[in-house]
Amino acid sequence: MTITIDKIALFLGIVLMLIGLYGAFSLKSIIRIILSLSIFDTGINVLIVSLGYLKGRTAPIIDGDKVTVENIFNVAIDPVPQALVLTAIVIGFGVTALMLVYALKLYQSKKTLDINQFSDLKW
Amino acid sequence: MVSPFYLLGVGLGLGFLLGLTGKNSKKYTSAITFVAFAFFVFFSISWLIPFALKQVTETLIYTAGFLPPFSISLSVGFYEAVFSLMINSLGLLSILFLWKKINSESNALGGIILVLFMTLNMLVFARDIFNIFVWLEIAAISTSGIILLDKNKFSYSAGFKYLLASSIISSLYLIGVVLVYFTNGTLFLNDLITNASGVTMSVTAVFLMLIAIVLELKPFPANGWALDVYEGANPAIGAIMSGGVATASLFLLYKFSPLLDNKFSYLFVIAGLLTFVGSNLFGIKQDKANRLLGYSSIGQIGLLVAIIGFRPFLGDKFEFIAITILVSHFLAKAGLFWLSDVIKQDNIKNWSVLRRKPLLLVLFGIFVFSLIGLPPFPSFFGKWELIMMLSGGYKFAVVTIILVGSFIEAIYLFRWLGYAIKLDFSELPEYKFELNKIIPVVIFGALVLGAGYYAGNLICLKTLNYIPLAFIVLLYFIDSLPAYIKNTLSILALGYYSYLILPNLYETDMLRFIFAVIFLIGGIITLVAGYAYKGKRQGFYPVALLMYVGLALIIQAQTTLEFFFGWELMTAGSYFLIIRGKKSIEHGLSYILFSIGGAYAILAAFGLIYAETSDILLSSLSVATQNITLIFSLLAIGFMTKTASLGLHIWLPGAHAEAESDVSPMVSAILLKAGVFGLFILMIAMGHNPEAEQIGLILGWIGALTALVGNLAAAFQEDAKRLLAYSSISQLGYILFGLAMMTHLGWMSAMVYSINHFLYKSILFLTIGAVVLKVGTHDMYKMGGLIKNMPLAFIAVLIGIIALSGVPPLSGFAGKWLFYNAIIDKHWYFQGAIVFFSGIVAFLYLFKLIYSVFLGQLKDNLRKVKDISVWFAIPIYILIIGIMIISAKPELYLKPLGTMISGFYPNGELSWTGGLANAPYGYWNGSGVMITIGIMFSLLFLWLWSLSRKAQKVKQFNIVYAAEAPQRPETTHISYNIYAGYYKSIGWIVAPIFEKFWSTMTEWIHSVSDFGRRIYNGNGQYYMTHILIYMLAFYFILMH
Fold first, then answer.
1. pTM of the model
2. Which of B199, B547, B678, B920 is least buried, going by the fewest C-beta atoms within 10 A?
3. Strand B922-925 relative to strand B916-919: parallel, antiparallel, unpaired?
């Protein structure tokens, strides 16, 4: 088995996801949990990109030279995963921002960021 | 038909614009958003109407001229339009509800709500799976945005937990989407569905997508985050979450359901049913209103998830079932959350403040009923069809689970309703009655009623008679008129209804005719006593008529559906009647729970019958050949909850004793006969099956023991109404016993007992009730010597107890005489001995009734008490005349009864020579006995009267007290604890074992609930763990 860039990326993505999950489930500081979730998101994005990679192909831009309307399916890579990643990054940004706002509000309400302190609502 | 892209334009455009405008324009935000939502609603309607008129078919809309997967595709069909209309009307009313809040908060709030609802629309329309991911994320972001509406530590932590959970869930979804794209090369749902059978589908990929959507729907037990949001956020946000977000997510699941193969359907069913039962179970112990609504909401959505899983089974009924249950939940849950915000009470015990505005209480009742699935609400018809279809597919285990879950839900909802109806609210703070908050609730309340009517028409093609129900609504609207007007109207209505159905029934069906007379004419007679009540008597007449309508519908029912419809109406009406009593809160609850449990047993039996005959005609009961032991047992248990047979009787004494004076005869003399009528229907259906004999034997024993225990317990009562209540239990035991014999004479005796019990129990309850109204207590030892003050009452009770005890010459004797003939005929000697013994016990308490109330020493405080109200005396004496007639001329009713029963049991009937009845073991002449006893009585009376002239009159206080006043005055009453000796020897028979059994059961359920709900420990990280474990567990199940 040869090590190719997409396999490295795949591996990296999975490692990032696991790191993120581990952090989100074990760390107690709300800021760290948010960061961990961000890392988890990034892992997913890397995973998506790696899955969309096709060896030896070029960017899917029809320039009339290397890539034309006729041969685009043979020489260019699939643009969809990259478009997905772009959207996912933007959304991840939005979620992270909102989480940070919540972190701020939570800190203001109790002067702590320990997630164990925020379990007033239960049962 | 407006293109859905305009929704995007308006939603996003206004959303951003409102965020950018300055503070000065804040006060216009509500108006602007309201107009935008009006456009949203218009959009939905513009699609719905063409679809409803079948002018168009499902339409696909693409962006930018590309075909999927390169473009975003939206699809609008009939169901999409329906869901969009539901969501958008909720949005419109939410804005109205939050009008002031939106104007006073930052101007972004209106924009965020608008964006959220636009997103929910898009979730419904989108056909691109990645696009759905985007909308899911935007929905999560905007939801957690509006959770911040209330600014306190609860909403902050709830919103944060929501964000944590939803980011994990949407990550799972995203991974699923990418894997699906990797294996299938498309993101277009329609293509995926076409490929679904192909080999390229990766199970893991589809699993990840589906489990993420299931997780969005808050499956039990991975749903702590959602519960916290329901509790911590403003209730109006709860309405949006439960009504809007959940509805859209559910549609998402529906969209994906064609992807399901059997394995996945199985997964949905497990997840859904687990949620339905688990969430309701954990909710039992909950007393915080909003969190409880959350539990209920999650449970209902769980049921709907299971229904989607059952899609292949439900065939063309699937949409009807899913939409009726969803619509009920949607309207009711939004309405309840809104009510919660109006009254601002978080503890369910404080919801009694609803009564400050009776309209709110009525709305609360409507919503609770539609959640439980009682008629005439849409969920009733949905649940009916669901049970029938599942039974038809032989899914009996699932039927059981659904009924158990519904029952558990009924426990806490009815407890809550009871609190609202009964508890004191004078200490609780006032709340504002703002019109903009009331209108949405009223609209949803009206819509759920309308939807029920519509669903009822869809399901049974207008055979249901809604005119009586309309009359009840009318009664509600004139509730502020004085009681006597409403009383007259009610009597006229019952009279008119009797006029409509009785003559025809007399010609065609004697059995139904007799019960219709008991229900309707009996209703009129007992209603006459209502004139004794002054003032408005608010809320009484609608519910009393509801019970009578239900009873009449049972009589008229041709199909099992109509029967069940009437049965549930009757149950609902009688529940409200019973809970009107001063101390009736717990009795009302135990009554309704036994009734609902019984009703579900009946429903399950009807389902089993449908499974075999594919028919809902009532006559198909007798066609069934499979599982008949189970069917008949279930039906018997169901009906015996209403006749209060031993083991299922514990609701009755309290319910009847604490009811109002004229309600007691309604719920005792009349209502219990509904159970008897049901048992008749059952026995007729059982007919001559070999299994029938065995069931009959068991029922006979239950009847005999009920008679004994009821009578013994009655003898030990100090409370007059409780005594009568226990006496009813035992009388119904006789009736059950007679029925169970399944012979001509057995049925004759059961029928005679039914008629007589109606007569004398009405007399006794009315009289004692009227006495209670005058003396102000039920306790017999606080009465005594009332004979001179209340001669009318005394005569009535005397005649009542003579008739009840079954001694000649009054009509009760006919029952006894037939009874013993029947027992000898049937050779049931052991049971017969018990019944005979309990007949003797009856004398003990009947004697007590007259002895301790009317004889003995008159109490000081009752020296000036007057005779019973004339409005009670009129019905009482009408009934006495009835007793006298059938006592003197028993052939008047025994002959037609004999003819009727000969239709079922032709052998062993009475033969008549004039007024002389001949049975195999003796003969009897009612008129002769009457005349003989009359002469004997007159002679004795004259002799005693001549003696009494020589007697010396002694005044009551012509005695000397030799000691101090006793500390417990009741111990000086001559009849207090009069049977203490008997109690020592045979009291163990009436030991409250059944009460103990049921209360242990209740405690056990509550402990399980309290223990189980502790998994929701409030920590966001644990909630994330739950989600991951849930996902892995289901993956494991799926792969094996």
1. 0.94
2. B199
3. antiparallel
